[in-house]
Write a structure and sequence with these properties.
With about 110 residues, the protein is mainly alpha-helical. About 45% of the residues lie in helices and about 5% in strands. The protein has 4 helices and 2 strands. The chain has helices at about 1-15, 30-35, 40-50, 85-100; strands spanning about 55-60, 65. It has a two-stranded antiparallel ribbon.
Length: about 110
């Protein structure tokens, strides 16, 4: 899905003369997921990795695709993955979200 997202962004951003233009109006992660047959959370993870690696910039009205994205399209090359949070940290995050929403945490820590 990561490769397909990079390829889709390049395909949309490439103009008739072969240059990369900003994608306007800015596509939502939900719309990109629909186009890829993926999920929004998965697209969001990849878009964040692309931003961290300097492949794209997202502004209020556009997605700017940088030439560096071609590195993600090379065979055998992928962006680095963010480490998964440990279970204890994840439970603290879920508790904080529930508290912000005025509700109870989804489950208690053992």
């Amino acid at each position: 899905a990561e490769y397909r997202l990079a390829h889709l962004l390049v395909e949309i951003a490439t103009t008739d003369d072969g240059t990369l233009a900003p994608i306007r109006p800015r596509l939502t992660h939900d719309r990109l997921a629909d186009l890829l047959g993926s999920t929004r959370p998965r697209v969001t993870v990849f878009m964040n990795q692309f931003k961290e690696n300097g492949y794209i910039t997202e502004s209020g009205d556009a997605i700017v695709v940088h030439r560096a994205i071609f590195a993600a399209l090379e065979p055998g090359r992928a962006t680095r993955r963010a480490p998964r949070p440990k279970r204890d940290n994840l439970m603290q995050i879920l508790d904080a979200i529930a508290a912000d929403r005025g509700g109870n945490p989804p489950r208690k820590q053992p």
